[in-house]
Amino acid sequence: MQFNTYRGVVKALNGVTFDIFEDEIVGLVGETGSGKSVTSLTILGLIQPPGEIVSGEVIFENENLLEKNNEEMLKIRGEGISMIFQDPVSSLNPVYSVGTQSSETISFHTKKGKKESLEEVVNLFKLVGIPSPEQRVKNYPFELSGGMQQRVMISMALSCQPKLLIADEPTTNVDVTIQAQIIDLIKNLQKKLKMSVLLITHNLGLVAETSDRVIVMYAGSVFEIANVEEFFKSPRHPYTEGLLGAIPSISESKDLLKTIPGFVPNMIDPPKGCVFHPRCEYKTNDCINNKPILIEIDNNHFVACHHPLEGESKFE
Description:
Radius of gyration: 21 Å
Distance between the termini: 35 Å
Number of helices: 12
Mean pLDDT: 89
Order of helices and strands: EEEHEEEHEHHHHHEHEHEEHHHEE
Helix content: 25-40%
């Protein structure tokens, strides 16, 4: 997947491969600009020009979504795959009540009437913990707090009981208390509705608390896939080690916060070989000249690295 700009071709995604299984939560992590949100938009068929999907497949229920036309994708979005977008403020229309906006999704996919759809919205608001839902459906977005707006977005995403829910930074712009409530809500609903969840986040604490598996992305590529326990216990890619090392410690140590040296590369002209090698302390000529492929080096533990790390994590 690439963006064709006046400065050149931005290679946003390059050989991204992963699975999401039934009834599991998968955490997708990486620095800003690693391609996490672009991956989610590609799955949903929401890439707009100058974006272009050059090749690949997005398989959902044994069908390639990249072969679907817009009308077919409209039916899949919401009913098969739903998404909680990063910023509820920009996602909700300020001139319509939240009840009207939520009922439109239900009406489109189920063909229910306006009154019946609004009754369903009230039930959904109850499900996601919105108090006085009969009154809240009449509110406009600006009349709700950030946490309540996010709950509205979650209820809209769940309105047709999707099989896959994509949550793109669902706790952005809300305080810590509301973050915990939203994550608990997603976990409980995932168990109740038995859906799969792709959780996109920078917060490794949320990943530890919620996810069954973790996918690590960097510069448009998947670097590591592991069960959540293995991810924190035994990271095998130097980049994953760097991410874990950058987590602030609650110990009394006065050491400076660890960082990954350097910057995310310019994807118009990315480094040859392993795209991480300019920032990697373990690099060799092999890393500089040859791009690694994602291989299984342990049971359900995949790494794209010429020299995967061994041993226990230094950052437990």
